[in-house]
Every structure is written in structure tokens, then in C-alpha cells.
Design brief:
This protein is mainly α. Helix content is 63%, strand content 0%. It has helices at 2-11, 32-42, 62-67, 70-84, 104-112, 125-142, 155-174, 184-195, 213-216, 223-239, 242-245, 251-259, 266-282, 287-305, 311-323, 331-341, 354-367, 372-381, 388-403, 410-425, 430-438, 443-450, 453-470, 474-490, 492-529.
């Protein structure tokens, strides 16, 4: 029918002056209603283009008006005119006095409203069938995938598929009712064929900061299609009932979605994060499985592969999940903190997802303050030895943990925290030392240290005196002097006692070193008197019972 109408329109000089391909792609399946709507949007009924449509300015039979299908009415009218004008010159028909004349504007109105029955506002079954057929046709066309790397693939066909995906997305957005259940199997088959594809091997994330992610990311070649596919999936998940979709969004579908987080394209991971989080919030019966699947990804990354690009996005999803946990926390959630989140501080590429990881850990501490000691000691257990960038990042995390810590935990955690910070500002790396010294500008950290001055001051004073004597950086020495002045003002008597104790320790160490040197000198003199020969070794006889 479409080809007949288009052919007839062209033969009757209705499309001779219109370049129809400039705004409708070649090969797009159209019904006559689309043609009329397109003409109506490009040329208003009052424009000079109106005389080009003499065959539309006809009267329609009453039964066609009631039937609601303008396309069938016009097709019948054109067929009658075609039979009546074979071999003869066609004349413009006169309107019958029993029929109402129909203008082009009226045809547009009828065609835009032919999906609804008379005065009811409800869509007719025929309209549903027409729309479902159109959706199935688009789904069938979009099931075929392109690699975007094969030179034999046609770029025009790729663009045509993209336009059909856009058309399918617009239909799903505009449609007042969700997709029919009979459409869902081919629909999810089309989504799976486009989304679930083999990914290139990922490269290890070694000391990659979040700001450098765009420089190291590999964009997906098929993103022009994938972007629309993700929008379609998100729209369907949002609009339709979970009980209807549970037969299609099952465990296998979710595992395949999690696998796509390994994509190196940050745009795809961002879209995937939105879809996965929407599924988690709506499909309550899948939540336990989804949490376990994400935990498996984390554990595999920590203890096996050390390669994954989507850890940050998965942690963002977990941040919203932890925020919704009820208090008191379940044992399952506490185990996730101790067995997954804290060990995530171990990998070398922790800087790439450190911001999201810190947020998750902080959420646990805010839910249950008693977990502060477990969390802080866990972070200190995975403290790096030779990775200076990671040390700088972890110092910032410790500072944030102290700000969210329960004040009742200050006295217990003051000594291990201050000991680690002191080791850091004694570091020969100036960035690590300066970052550790800046921690003492934090009021919460100073308040925590003041809760255990007797334990903290000896360690702190020893570290500052060592910096002032031996550190090579002038800026580090200057910052150390500022911290020493601040600490001395807090407890001057205790500070002087620590300095005296430190001096006495240095004196004893110097005396022991002097004695040790004198002993070595005596040994060397004795060896010289013996002519440089070692005394003979005694012969021992082993007698066994």
C-alpha cells in the first residue's frame, strides 16, 4: 500500500516539486499518514504549496470518515480516479452535494486522530496492530549489528539503522501504553544482540588518577548505536511493570550487564550505571543477586585480575545502596565492609576509584559509629610502602574518616593514626611529608590527638625533631616548625618533658654507640698484635649415645 500511494502521488505531480529525501531517509518504512504529517510540517496549508495537491482536495465518503483510516480512503479514491482516467484526459471531480468537502488541513487532522475512535479518546485495535507492526519492523531491522571496524560495512546502512533506533525510541517515549508482551521477546533479543558483544582486553590500571581517565579511555566505535540502545532500555525499564519484565531481565541478563562494566568507554559505563541502578531500585526480587554479583566482581579484581575499568561506577551504585541500609546493619553488610571494601585499598590502581570507595566506607561509619576502629585499622593494614601517590590519597582518606568518626573512638584510635601520620611527614618524598603536616590544620584531627596527649606526644615530638635535623626540603622544615609551635602551645609542660626524654634517649644512644666503637677498636688492635692471624679453632668431638 505504501509503495502504491507514493507511486500514485509522484505520478499525479504531488511530489514533483518536493525533495522528500531531504528530511526522510531513504528506505524508511512510511505509511501515508507519515507523508501527510511531513508535508504538513514542512508546508503549511496556507502556503503556496497548496495548489500542488489538487487530488487531495476531494471529498471523502462518509464511511471512510467514520472508519478512521484516511490512508485507506485516499487509496480507494486514487484507485477509482486511476481507472477512470486510463487513456483519457482527467478532469477535476466535483464535490457531491451529499458529501462534505475535505480540505488538506482536515485530512491532516483526520490522519493525526485516526488512531482514536469517535468521541471516546481510546485507541482502536486496528491502531494497536498498526503500531505493533511498525515496532516489530523496526526491531527486526535493528537486530543486525555492525562492528564499525569492517571496511566492507556501508556507512549509509549504519546511519539508516541509527535513524530507525531513534524512531523506535520516539515511539516508546510517545506511546501512552507499554509495549505488548508479544513484542518483548524480539525486543530483548534485539537489545542483547546489540549490547552483549565481546570486549577488547582491558589494560591494568596503574596509578591512573581520575582526572587522567579521559586521556587513557578507549571510546567504543559503536557508541552512536549503543547510546540509543541504552536510552531505549532505560525507558522500557522505567515505564513497564517489573512483574512483566522479570521473565526477560533475569539472572543471565544481569550477569551480561555487569560484564559490560569492563568497557573502556566512560560514556558506556555511565549509561550502564544508570540502567543497572534503575533495575536495582525497581526489581526488588533481584537485589540480593545483584549485590552478590557486584561483590564477586570486586573480589575477582582484588585477588585475581587486578584489571577492571568499571570499579568506580559499581562503587557509585553501592554508595546509594549503602545509603538505604537500615540500622542496625545486617551481618551480611558488615561482612561486605570487612571483606570487600577495605581490601579494595590494596590494588595498585586504587586512585582511579578512591573517591567512590571513601564515600562507601564513610557511609558505613555514619550508619554504625562502632565500625570506626575496624575501618581505620583496616586502612592502616593496607598502607603502601613505596607508592607515594597512594600514600597522599590515603592520608586524605584518614582525614575524612576522622571527621566522620564517633568522638568516643578518639582515644582508642589516636595513637595508631598519629603514629602513621608521623611516619608520613618523616618521608623523604616532599609531597607525602607536606600532605601529612597539613593534617594538623584539621580541627577534628587535633581534637582527636588531644584526647590522648600522653601517648601521642612522644611519637609526635620525636618525628618533628627528626624532620628539623635531617630532612632535605626547606618547605617541609618550615611546616614542621609551624606544627611544633602549635603543639607546644597546647601542652607546654608535656612538650618540654618529651624533649628532655628525647634528649636523654639520644645521649644514651650516643654513649652506646661510643662503647661499641671502642670495642671494635680493641678488637682491631688485638688482631694486629696477633699478626693478623685468627686464633686456632678448638676441635670438638661429637659423641653420640
Amino acid at each position: 500500500m505504501r509503495s502504491f500511494i507514493t507511486k500514485t502521488l509522484v505520478e499525479k505531480s504531488m511530489l514533483h516539486s518536493l525533495d522528500f529525501t531531504t528530511f526522510i531517509p531513504y528506505g524508511t518504512p512510511l505509511c501515508f499518514g507519515h507523508v501527510l504529517q511531513t508535508l504538513h510540517h514542512k508546508y503549511q496549508p496556507s502556503s503556496p504549496f497548496l495548489p500542488l495537491f489538487p487530488h487531495i482536495l476531494v471529498s471523502l465518503p462518509t464511511e471512510h470518515k467514520k472508519g478512521g483510516s484516511v490512508s485507506r480512503a485516499i487509496q480507494g479514491k486514487l484507485e477509482k480516479e486511476e481507472k477512470g482516467t486510463m487513456g483519457a484526459q482527467r478532469t477535476t471531480p466535483k464535490a457531491s452535494p451529499k458529501r462534505n468537502s475535505t480540505t488538506l488541513q482536515h485530512l491532516f487532522e483526520l490522519d493525526s486522530g485516526h488512531h482514536f475512535s469517535n468521541n471516546t479518546g481510546k485507541r482502536s485495535p486496528a491502531a494497536f496492530e498498526c503500531e505493533d507492526e511498525e515496532i516489530l519492523s523496526l526491531i527486526s531491522s535493528c537486530t543486525f549489528t555492525y562492528t564499525f571496524t569492517d571496511p566492507s560495512e556501508s556507512s549509509s546502512q549504519q546511519d539508516l539503522k541509527r535513524l530507525k533506533l531513534i524512531q523506535l525510541l520516539s515511539i516508546i517515549k510517545i506511546s501512552p501504553k507499554p509495549l505488548h508482551t508479544q513484542i518483548l521477546p524480539p525486543f530483548f533479543t534485539m537489545l542483547s544482540s546489540n549490547l552483549f558483544r565481546p570486549l577488547p582486553p582491558t589494560t591494568p590500571i596503574l596509578c591512573v588518577l581520575p582526572d587522567d581517565e579521559d586521556l587513557t579511555a578507549t571510546p567504543a566505535a559503536s557508541w552512536p548505536h549503543l547510546q540509543i540502545i541504552y536510552d531505549i532500555l532505560l525507558r522500557v525499564v522505567t515505564a513497564m511493570d517489573a512483574k512483566v519484565l522479570k521473565y526477560h531481565i533475569d539472572h543471565s541478563f544481569l550477569i551480561n550487564l555487569i560484564t559490560l562494566f569492563q568497557s573502556e568507554d566512560p560514556r558506556e559505563r555511565e549509561s550502564l550505571k544508570n540502567v543497572f541502578h534503575r533495575i536495582y531500585s525497581k526489581f526488588t526480587f533481584h537485589r540480593s543477586f545483584m549485590r552478590k554479583a557486584m561483590s564477586d566482581v570486586f573480589l575477582q579484581y582484588i585477588f585475581e585480575t587486578d584489571k577492571h575499568c568499571g570499579i568506580g561506577e559499581l562503587l557509585e551504585i553501592w554508595g546509594t545502596i549503602i545509603n538505604g541500609f537500615t540500622v542496625p546493619l545486617k551481618e551480611e553488610h558488615k561482612l561486605f565492609l570487612t571483606r570487600v571494601l577495605i581490601p579494595l585499598h590494596k590494588p595498585k590502581g586504587m586512585q582511579a576509584y578512591h573517591r567512590q570507595l571513601t564515600y562507601c566506607v564513610t557511609q558505613f561509619m555514619q550508619k554504625e559509629p562502632d565500625l570506626s576502629g575496624l575501618t581505620v585499622r583496616g586502612v592502616l593494614r593496607y598502607w603502601p610502602v613505596t607508592n607515594c601517590q597512594k600514600e597522599v590519597v590515603l592520608i586524605g582518606e584518614l582525614e575524612e574518616l576522622v571527621e566522620n568518626m564517633d568522638p568516643e573512638q578518639y582515644r582508642k584510635l589516636a595513637l595508631p593514626l598519629c603514629t602513621q601520620i608521623t611516619k608520613c611527614f618523616n618521608s623523604w618524598n616532599s609531597q607525602v611529608a607536606e600532605r601529612a603536616l597539613y593534617v594538623w590544620n584539621n580541627e577534628q584531627f587535633v581534637k582527636m590527638a588531644s584526647q590522648a596527649m600522653g601517648d601521642v606526644f612522644p611519637v609526635l615530638v620525636a618525628g618533628m625533631e627528626k624532620n628539623l635535623k635531617w630532612h632535605w626540603s626547606k618547605s617541609v622544615k618550615q611546616l614542621t616548625e609551624n606544627v611544633r609551635a602549635m603543639v607546644e602551645e597546647m601542652e607546654p609542660n608535656l612538650y618540654s618533658q618529651c624533649v628532655e626524654r628525647l634528649e636523654s634517649q639520644d645521649l644514651r644512644a650516643h654513649q652506646e654507640a661510643t662503647k661499641r666503637a671502642e670495642k671494635w677498636v680493641g678488637i682491631e688492635l688485638a688482631a694486629t698484635r696477633n699478626g693478623g692471624q685468627c686464633p686456632p679453632q678448638p676441635h670438638w668431638i661429637c659423641v653420640s649415645n
